What does this fold into?
Amino acid sequence: MKLLIGNRNYSTWSLRPWLVLKHFEIPFEDEVLQLSGPGWRENLAARSPTAKVPVLLDGELVVPETIAIIEYLADSFPDRAIWPRDRAERALARAAAAEMHAGFSALRTHAPMNLRASHPGKIDLDAVRRDLHRVETLWGDLLERSSGPYLFGDFSAADAMFAPLATRLRTYELPVSDVAQRYVEAIYALPAFQAWRALALQEPWIVDDDEIDVIQGRVAPGTLA
It folds into this structure.
């Protein structure tokens, strides 16, 4: 398998299936498609049917979209427990993943993922307060059920979906409870995440549209949400 990804420092949707592949020890290789620079849009459109990343290539099969990739991996490797094995827990995990996929737009807009940066105090808390409250409630309820350290005890696809949001809380030092903070620390402690972050920190490229100093005062494009 090959996973086409965007710049590791910024591409949240690429991070999610990459974590699943890496954590569950599914053999794969990856290829970074630049999200800035001359001709990057044309190059992306030539490699991806949606002109977005990530894209999973498995032989002749081309699977775009993060959720679809994760589901394909779960179907292909049922022994890996990518989703929780218990049916009720699996339903809750998929519901949480779907909410992350469709929601938290304020945090996406105002606090883009940037693993190389530290931007305390640069986010208007009023703009993201509702999203912060919701993620506190969601994480808190699930962690209480599971006793942690991850949302369903062991790391699952649901945690992969929320990993980029966890990085936003750290990058911008957003005010969260001790419960949420411990969950963020658990994400950062995951070996698969540490491997991604180490590669991200080595990247020389800058995507202006996802640098907070550039997007402040205007609406972020949201292409890497």
Observations:
- Residues 140 and 179 are 7 Å apart (CA to CA).
